[in-house]
Amino acid sequence: MLEVFRQGPQTEVSQTTEGLQFCVKAKYLSPQAADDADSMGIACAFAAVIGSGFLGYQMGELNLLVGGLFAGGVFGRPLMQMSFRESAAKTATVYFTEKAIYLERKKGQLRLDRNHRHRFVMYEHPQAVIERDKIEIAKAKGKTNWVRYYSDSFVVALEYLGQRYNIAEVMNRHDAEMIIARFNLCDEYLDDLANSRKTNPLNPQDEWHDPAGGLPH
């Protein structure tokens, strides 16, 4: 079973008072966080270039320090943005037991009975259409310096008895699909486990059935 969890979202397996438990810790980057991280990278790169000019002026010469700072600002922006994106990533934690699903929320855990109707789904981000329209307008004007944030982002959610519980805003369809697949795998495995216990006897006495008309014990 553990082989299945080697790739994709981090998944821990343990035993609790409610039986077998899966803890899925899905790391993801939201489109807003990615946008903010990229803006921070641009700001830092710009500051490095300006800082190198100011430092060179104060020192009255161009040396390795000034040159390195300038080069970092000019060529280091992608690395800065990547670093900021990595630090901006969040983790969605969901617990699965044979009896319940636990969603980690800001105000604590939300417990939902697994016996009730539910399913994990992904919706297109509500700002996806707006961003696509803006990109089309930019293309029509001949602009090429745009980045997709929301148009390839999805909201991973749990639908439970007609209610929708948003779990994560995920930038990148593949990442969202990986999270959904892991949630469904854990959920379906526990369903199969519960069904097998209903059909398979737990002890020798469960295999014995009194004949019709037999004497009571």
Explain how this protein is built.
With 217 residues, the protein is α+β, with helices and mostly antiparallel strands. The protein contains 6 helices and 8 strands; from the N terminus they run ββαααββββαββαα. It has helices at 31-59, 64-75, 77-88, 128-140, 173-199, 204-207, and strands at residues 10-16, 19-28, 90-97, 100-105, 108-113, 118-124, 153-160, 163-171. The strands form 2 sheets. It has a 5-stranded antiparallel sheet with strand order 1-2-3-4-5, with helices on one face. It is elongated, with a radius of gyration of 27 Å.
Question: What is the structure about, briefly put?
Answer:
With 217 residues, this protein is α+β, with helices and mostly antiparallel strands. It has helices spanning 31-59, 64-75, 77-88, 128-140, 173-199, 204-207, and strands at 10-16, 19-28, 90-97, 100-105, 108-113, 118-124, 153-160, 163-171.
